[in-house]
Amino acid sequence: MDILHLVDRLEELFNESRPIPLTHNVIVDEDRILEIIDQMRISIPEEVKKSQQVLAQRDRILAQAQEEANRTIALAKQKAEELMARDAIVQAAQARSEQVLAQARSDGEAIRRDADDYILESLGALEAELTRLMGQTRNGIAKLTTERQGRQIERSAEKLEEP
Questions:
Q1: How far apart, in Å, are the Cα atoms of 7 and each of 11, 35, 100, 132, 142?
Q2: Do residues 125 and 54 lie in contact, with contact meaning Cβ atoms separated by under 8 Å?
Q3: Using the 8-state DSSP alphabet, how is residue 21 labeled?
Q4: What are phi and psi of 18, to 5 degrees?
Q5: Quick one: DSSP state of residue 19?
Q6: With 80 as the cut, is the pLDDT of residue 126 above it?
Q7: What's the CA gap between 25 and 130, in Å, rounded?
Q8: Can you tell me the distance from the alpha carbon of 107 to that of 60, in angstroms, rounded to the nearest whole number?
Q9: Of the ranges 45-54, 87-96, 138-147, which one carries the lowest mean pLDDT score?
Q10: pLDDT of residue 3
């Protein structure tokens, strides 16, 4: 289940809760909120799997870039050897070979940087979302604990007031 959907359900449960008069507290269905929290715990590993898939995709992109760079280098070497066989154009062949190698290295490095940037951005967004969800979950737990304690205090006070 999508973690954002669970957050929406948690918010909906909060909005449906009955307010306690003269306070900013509400009464929340404990079973429903615990069920949503359990589902969130199950859903978070899915988000981690997604981040692992992003990392695997990055590795594939890097491997493809390396393979392409190797092919380009091999092609450049082959081309350079063919050109060197011809005395009249040896200088031109060496210059072109160096350009192709430099371009291949440059292209490979640019692809690596782009892949790293994409991974960092994706993981940063995932981390921010998980942090936000953990904060909301902790706040919900703290609020429920406080409300539960408040109810216990109210019950104790009612028992004391009974003749």
A1: 6, 12, 52, 10, 16
A2: no
A3: T
A4: -85, 135
A5: E
A6: yes
A7: 26
A8: 16
A9: 87-96
A10: 78
